[in-house]
Amino acid sequence: MMAKREIQIASAIERALTELGISPPEGGVKVERPARLEHGDYATSVALELSKPLGKNPRSFAQEIIETRAISEIPHLKGIELAGPGFINFRLMDSHLHESLLELLHQGEADFAKSDLGHGEKIQLEFVSANPTGPLHVGNAWWASYGDAIKRVLERSGFDVKTEYYVNDTGGQIRTLGESLLARRSNQAPPEDGYQGEYVVELAKRYQGPDDVSEAGKFAVKENLAAIKASLLNLNINFDEWFSQASIEESGAVDETIGILASMGATYEKDGALWLEATRFGDNRDRVLRKSDGYFTYLAGDIAYHRNKFLVRGFDRVIDIFGADHHGQVASLKAAMSALGIDPNRLEILIGQMVSLVEGDRKVKFSKRAGNIVSMEWLVSELGPAVTRLLSLSSSLDRAAVIDIEEAKSTSMDNPAYYIQYAHARISSIFRVAESRGVLAQELAEVSLDLLKTPRELELIRTLISLPDVVGDAAISRAPQRVVAWLKSLASAFHGFYHDCPILAEGIEEELLQARLQLAKATQIGLRVALFLVGIEAPEQM
User: What's the rounded Cα separation, in Å, for the pair 356 and 139?
Assistant: First the structure.
């Protein structure tokens, strides 16, 4: 998704091509922010893209585009440059940067980077939903911070978001958990396929109920859920709803949903089982809904649950974040929604790839049943919530993560979390020192922001004012890692500004001091907004 300014420039380029009698590229004109500041504020390679099929020299073609009326009418441009083999670079006027900075300061923390992009669309966001058969571990909860950050950027962008944890509190796994607990209470080994972890021993010590597998399972689920909620709270994650699978089954919603599918001609009987004719709706094979023994499959319950989301609770869109081991559910769930008359595009399923934990030369494996648990509680205690969250938000869901514990513990400027948080602490220190010296920030109307014109100052402003577009892009793309990337860029720009553009040093003229104080304040606003969006504290000192 291109930002507003990028879209404005892209539209002008398309008009320029029309002036030249040339059709824009099929996918539209792409305008991007260059990685290096010396290449301007925005750039396009459209001349390179179109020159070959048109039989034109790319540099000459780029110059033709630059000389069109449409390009000359783009507002707030200081310059347009032809670069390299045919790139066109656009540079904004400093006055436009200063006006944008002033707008940021007027908006403040409450409104900066806030938009109505979502127009109040009701979104239900489900993530984590790890089985309550043990503590949250790194394997099943790594993407928790990612889901929480998606919620935050969506809400900042005008969507109405409710988060949900689906509690799988029924079925064979809960029975096995109850059997494991009772075995441990009797000082016996758990069943062969039971849960082996030390946490089961601790549960057994606290269990005061009868030797009943069902009761023992319910007790264990309750205790495990309390531990799961505490672990998530340590990461600054709260769910709006904890939805019980048992409630779906006990309400008769599964029977009702299967009945609806049958009435719509979407099911058939075969080999004593009831099947969903999923291939009619885009799946690669049909799916069993009720087994020959009369029991519903997990898919049947999941279909009923998603029907509840759309047709009972009335969400406009549902976003599920599943682990990599659930990728096979995507096609079947979408097919089921189609069969129910629900547009499958309203269901988004994001797949989080596996995470590996490395400690020294040892790769740690995760398994609740085998008892090999690296709990999220332990990881947060080792790294802290800020580092833990930032690590899970430093790459996209579709990339497997490898976490080096020792490297993540570093408290040097090489640690991204430390580097970003230190920028905020440094700004807070500037204002404390200013106050101790009797230096007070003037009213904004009295400050000459146009005095901010060194490369470091302008780079910092450019980075700051891009946050609204970054947040909108992160919301639409479900990619909160882009906010983290922005935070890293902002921290880098601020630390460079701090080093090269002293604020409180002797000999700094009062007008320039006041302008730089306002730039520091704007940076603090940007940091606070973005750190909140990724769920990380903005410390006053470090």
Answer: 8
